[in-house]
Amino acid sequence: MILDYNDLISTQTFTILGILTAFYFFQRFASFVWLYYLRPPSLHKFLHGKEPYALITGASDGIGRAVAKELYERGFNLILHGRNETKLKAAIDQIHASGKGPKRDIRFFLASADAADVDFTKIVEQFKDLRITLVINNVGGGRLRAQRIDAFSGEDLLGDIRVNALFSFDLTHALLPQLRAAGGPVEVVFVGSQSADIAIPRLSTYAASKSFLYQLTRCLNADETYGSPSQVRFTYWNVGTVITNSLREKPSLFYPLAADFAKNLMGIIGCGREKVTPYAPHAMQQLLVGLLPKSILLHHATKTIQRIIDETEKRTD
Ligand SMILES: NC(=O)c1ccc[n+]([C@@H]2O[C@H](COP(=O)([O-])OP(=O)(O)OC[C@H]3O[C@@H](n4cnc5c(N)ncnc54)[C@H](OP(=O)(O)O)[C@@H]3O)[C@@H](O)[C@H]2O)c1
Fold first, then answer.
1. How far apart are alpha carbons 90 and 113 in whole angstroms?
2. pLDDT tier at 99, thresholds 50, 70, 90
3. Of 46, 75, 203, 235, which sits with the fewest C-beta atoms within 10 Å of its C-beta?
4. List of long-range contacts for 13-18, beta carbons under 8 Å, 24+ apart
């Protein structure tokens, strides 16, 4: 059969498109396998100097407490943040008790992350002589609101934004000079959420705050590399559902317990990606979700939110 010129162009175009598409998917697959299964861990990069410290906010429970425990076991001294002294001290005792090898230092500070009057300069001042090489800005939480935002006061809504964005921003602002002086690589993590990537009803202040953290990550990286580069880098963790005391679902592959989630993400710290999903099954979930039409996503999100609101109302009755 003889092909005319147009047939030839379209055959070539489709072949090239096919090759490019195959290359794109192969590259994504290879990058996935490398990140989660082949890449050598790089946490030790942040164990430099005599006594390196990791600072973790929201460390009295959930992901923060689990991450603190893992970091302590891997050689970090800790500075932990919480709002309830008894609860935070109990978490510290637990970390000390579970740690193998030599005892390391664990310090703490208390602050309500939703308060307008937190003195960040004073907080940072008490740790000014410590070498902080890792900061996990973990404090946060999605307060699901049964009504739209105009049913609440601006101050109330601002509380959500403080807990999920401004506390991390202000702490980073106060800490930066000290982090730059650490004398080696420093990583600052902002704990984000998958909910910032999709539109979920009744969760606007939370999701928007997490989006703020992502853009902050990108811009601060640009800041630290522009001019005379520093060794401080920022990364945003795109977190999916994790079972904690504040989110009691049935554990499964896609719903890991905080302890398992924290163990997994030790291999991700220092990977150099600006936005990373720290748990492989959540990354698979995101890939699939990304293929769904928006209308199906919104329908599913709405049903899930309604179920959670109903369950919460039943519990508080
Ligand atoms: N779990 C998930 O499915 C999930 C999904 C996506 C993203 N994330 C993100 O992961 C991070 C940790 O979540 P989590 O599930 O581990 O939460 P969690 O179990 O509720 O623990 C939150 C921690 O933050 C502290 N905290 C909360 N509000 C505070 C406030 N106003 N002032 C001071 N401390 C406060 C809590 O202190 P108390 O112990 O005193 O309550 C606790 O230490 C959050 O940033 C969250 O947005 C979680």
1. 20
2. confident
3. 75
4. none
Cα 218 to middle of ligand 1, angstroms? 23
Quickly count: other Cβ atoms within 10 Å of residue 231's Cβ.
Answer: 16
Nearest atom of ligand 1 to the alpha carbon of 59: 43
pLDDT category at 316 given cuts 50, 70, 90 is low
CA distances from 6 to 1, 15, 19, 72, 177 (A): 14, 14, 20, 66, 63
- Index of the ligand 1 atom closest to the CA of residue 65: 43
Burial class (CB in 10 A: 0-12, 13-18, 19+), 112: middle
DSSP code string of 251-269: --SSS-BHHHHHHHHTTTT
3-state secondary structure of 175: helix
Tokens of 130: 């410590």
Lowest mean pLDDT among 109-118, 136-145, 259-268: 136-145
Digit-coded pLDDT (tens) for 200-223:
888 999 999 999 999 999 999 999
Distance (Å, whole) CA 282 – CA 301: 16
Helix (H) or strand (E) holding 135: strand 131-137
Could you tell me the distance, in angstroms and rounded to a whole number, from the CA of residue 246 to the centre of ligand 1?
Answer: 8
| Centre of ligand 1 from the C-alpha of residue 254, in Å | 19
- 241: number of Cβ within 10 Å: 18
How far is 278 from 257, CA to CA, in rounded Å?
14
Pocket test for ligand 1, best of 166, 167, 246 (most atoms within 8 A of CB): 246
Q: E strands within 267-307? A: 275-276
40-316 under CATH 3.40.50.720, yes or no: yes
Interatomic CA distance for residues 169 and 234, integer angstroms: 12
